[in-house]
Amino acid sequence: MSPYWLILLFLSSLSCHHVLSHSKVELLPGFDGPLPFTLRTGYIGVDEGEEVQLFYYFIESENDPKEDPLLLWLTGGPSCSTISAIVYEIGPLKFEEIQYNGSLPKLVSRQYAWTKMANILFVDLPVGTGFSYAKTPRANYSGDFRTSSHVNQFLRKWLVNYPEFISQSLYIGGDSYSGFTLPLFFEDMLHGNPSTDRYIDNNHIIPFAHGMGLISDELFEELERTCGGEYHNVDPNKVECVNNMKAFEAKEGYELVYYWMADRNVQEALHVRKESIGEWRRCNYEFEYSFEVESSVKYHAKLSTKGFRSLIYSGDHDLVVPFLGTQAWIRSLNYSIVDDWRRWWVDGQIAGFTRTYSNRMTFATIKGAGHTAPEYKPKECLAMFERWIHGNPL
């Protein structure tokens, strides 16, 4: 991929006296010995008077941090902490896979971390997520457009304070709900299982579940009858439809990170400010957030006209954002196919299927993966990321 340094166009508008709050983390409770990679954490203030303080984790590439690209990664939700991406998806650490015994969960190295070939900047966004916080009550809310503004301010200030990374290739990535906000302001994207159009995504969930054999023919027929094929913003007066949809309610399955993040020693090691510490949630769904963007397809269309490359990938077992919906909005862009539907391979095994379009967009499925694909298929997703980021076909 050709390097894009468009962010430099904005740097001249910033005064360079901003003081960056950051600290190097060499030891983490739960991990044996010094960290085998460079981790820095800190806060950057955005908005008027820097009323919003955004917490970040910056992990340098384990390969060649001075030459490898910079990837800014945002987690979805909205309001899900980026620690999920670090310990469950693409970061260099993960929890030891043993039954929890009441003590502090142990961390071990992840073999297929994306930090093996990229510098990754993880940000708790929007305000109210993870350890990001507001200094005033009026700043303690967010929405799609405010979030996009905050990311823009954050990245510009971060690059001013880390000038050694300005000349490196910049990639922007995220998963799930970030698919609504990232295309608002970024030219070059890397999206995993992105939510893009609420209507398209939600209306493909039931057909996908039926096609994958996850629900019976009888339940599918009842859903079709009672909901009429409309599963987005279901009318609460449609009692039969609402009752049938309850079969799709999900349960939280990430207990270990709660125990680890709640530990005071962990918070001190991460240099978390005391004013940002409350009841830590992996996803803060009680936070006041305005869902303003119904569809980000038009932003993808605009980016496509500028010739920037993008990778859109979906776990083919993802019930949250089924790949059927992702394929539907990609087709709506009406770009011609330059590399038609084919298998892609890892270690002699089929890893999924892929297709590339004339707008330099690559779509890929990851065989057997769920919503956060790297969590389920780490080897395959690392191979995909490595090939794409180096401009090679999957």
From TrEMBL:
Q: Which domain of life is it from?
A: Eukaryota
Q: Which GO terms describe its biological process?
A: proteolysis; secondary metabolic process
Signal sequence span is 1-21
**Molecular function terms, GO-annotated:** acyltransferase activity, transferring groups other than amino-acyl groups; serine-type carboxypeptidase activity
Query: Keywords in UniProt for this one?
Result: Signal
**One matching Pfam family:** Peptidase_S10
The protein's matches in InterPro entries, at most eight in alphabetical order, are given as:
AB_hydrolase_fold (IPR029058), Peptidase_S10 (IPR001563)
Q: Could you say which protein family the record assigns here?
A: Belongs to the peptidase S10 family.
Per its record, how is this protein called by name?
Answer: Uncharacterized protein
